[in-house]
């Protein structure tokens, strides 16, 4: 085994130790509190140490090209035990989940919220074709594949979805781990927030649901079960919701929003 | 350095083994920090082995699925296959559920996010290529999907009287 790879493993153990020693932190901000889990510290530490300025000496060896490639290529396989864990969380609650299965089904259409909320903002900011790519969905693999097939990635639409993909990859988990419990203060029930956590991104779902579970430990089992059931459903019907609902809705809203503004502005920026 | 055949599976299996080993390590650190955290028992070890086994079965199913012609099944992610494998086997035997439940949930998440952090460092430079406008849009897109789904769930729960 290569020396650099052993360094990577030792580094991972150190990051985990540091993140766990910091532990669960709750920062009160007025009536709302922001919960930070060890997983948030883990991603922040390993990301920040990878900044250019820190990449010297031994840190440079840890973040060698091969090691970073290993992490991104095999991240999915490192996630698999988590996915296997979800089966054990859903199984005992399957009856309960199936009895309200229709709620799980309808909340999938909440994914259209990316367009309903995101598209007007994008148009307001002056984005045009880029808005198509960046508001079609959460910007994960499904949207990336659809947009690149339809417009290629080297188009305005493609750049839009790619940007969202990058932003989501880097900030998504941290974002949802903070936002999910905050919504409890807005009157949302934790069961509803748990179902909403299954959005089609493994790391974002994990971040949102574990943050909720840490906030309301009594319902941890239900939260994890609902979130993972919803995640599984998203991976089944996510593509269908995108192709048959999101795309037509987006086309309709796009025409409505840019009408009168003409297509001039995007041509100028393009 | 493309690996194929048995080699490829051996590599996947080793990476998953690394992952479960890191979970055990994390759970131990949690115990050092807080002695009241989930204990490590022989059940925990069985649970970790079960997680490893289910992951490997899921990988094999996913690779087999890629070889058949139906697009939807071919493109179904390996993450989904592992969840389904685990769900089916856990429904078949409660022993699996008991073993897996002895593995602390949050201990599974910390190692993953550690590697997620390492995996994105070279993308940080790409951030400069993304415009600040898309960054603002991203915030609304993320809130949109989450609040959208949560609102529909909440209405559903209210209607069903739960």
TrEMBL record, chain A:
Recite the UniProt keywords alphabetically. Membrane, Transmembrane, Transmembrane helix
Domain of life from the UniProt record: Bacteria
InterPro entries found in the cross-reference section: DUF3100 (IPR021450)
Please verify whether the record's keywords include Aminoacyl-tRNA synthetase: no
Is Membrane among this UniProt entry's keywords?
yes
Q: Which parts of the chain span the membrane according to its record? A: 37-58, 70-88, 100-127, 162-186, 192-216, 223-249
Pfam families assigned to the protein according to its UniProt record, in alphabetical order: DUF3100
Can you say what this protein is called?
Answer: Membrane protein
* Taxonomy of the source species: Bacteria, Bacillati, Bacillota, Bacilli, Bacillales
UniProtKB/TrEMBL annotation, chain B:
What keywords were assigned to this record?
Answer: Membrane, Transmembrane, Transmembrane helix
Q: Which domain of life is it from?
A: Bacteria
Residue intervals passing through the bilayer? 12-31, 43-64, 76-96, 102-122, 134-159
Protein's name in the database: Permease
Q: Which organism is it from?
A: Neobacillus kokaensis
């Amino acid at each position: 085994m290569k020396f650099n790879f052993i360094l990577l493993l030792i580094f991972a153990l150190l990051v985990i130790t540091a993140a766990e020693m910091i532990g669960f932190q709750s920062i009160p901000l007025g009536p709302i509190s922001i919960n930070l889990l060890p997983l948030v510290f883990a991603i922040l530490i390993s990301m920040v140490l990878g900044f250019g300025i820190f990449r010297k000496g031994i840190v440079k060896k840890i973040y060698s090209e091969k090691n970073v490639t290993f992490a991104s290529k095999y991240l999915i396989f490192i996630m698999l035990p988590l996915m296997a864990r979800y089966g054990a969380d859903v199984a005992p609650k399957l009856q309960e989940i199936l009895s309200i299965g229709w709620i799980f089904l309808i909340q999938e259409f909440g994914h259209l919220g990316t367009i309903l909320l995101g598209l007007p903002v994008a148009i307001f900011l002056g984005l045009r074709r880029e808005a198509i790519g960046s508001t079609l969905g959460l910007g994960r693999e499904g949207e990336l594949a659809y947009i690149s097939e339809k417009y290629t990635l080297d188009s305005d639409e493609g750049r839009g979805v790619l940007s969202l993909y990058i932003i989501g990859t880097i900030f998504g988990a941290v974002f949802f781990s903070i936002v999910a419990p905050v919504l409890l203060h807005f009157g949302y029930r934790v069961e509803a927030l748990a179902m909403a956590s299954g959005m089609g991104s493994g790391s974002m779902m994990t971040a949102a649901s574990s943050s909720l579970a840490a906030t309301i430990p009594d319902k941890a089992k239900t939260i994890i079960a609902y979130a993972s059931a919803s995640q599984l459903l998203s991976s089944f019907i996510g593509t269908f919701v995108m192709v048959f609902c999101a795309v037509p809705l987006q086309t309709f809203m796009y025409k409505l929003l840019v009408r009168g503004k003409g297509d001039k502005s995007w041509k100028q920026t393009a | 350095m493309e690996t194929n055949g048995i080699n490829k599976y051996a590599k996947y299996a080793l990476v998953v083994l690394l992952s479960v080993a890191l979970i055990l390590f994390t759970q131990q650190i949690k115990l050092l920090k807080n002695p009241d955290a989930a204990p490590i028992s022989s059940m925990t070890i069985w649970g970790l082995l079960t997680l490893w086994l289910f992951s490997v079965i899921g990988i094999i199913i996913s690779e087999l699925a890629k070889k058949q012609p139906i697009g939807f099944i071919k493109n179904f992610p390996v993450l989904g296959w592992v969840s389904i494998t685990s769900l089916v086997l856990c429904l078949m035997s409660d022993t699996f559920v008991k073993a897996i439940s002895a593995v602390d949930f949050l201990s599974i998440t910390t190692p993953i996010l550690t590697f997620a952090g390492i995996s994105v460092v070279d993308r940080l430079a790409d951030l400069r290529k993304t415009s600040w406008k898309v960054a603002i849009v991203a915030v609304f897109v993320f809130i949109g999907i989450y609040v959208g789904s949560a609102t529909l769930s909440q209405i559903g729960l209210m209607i069903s009287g739960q």
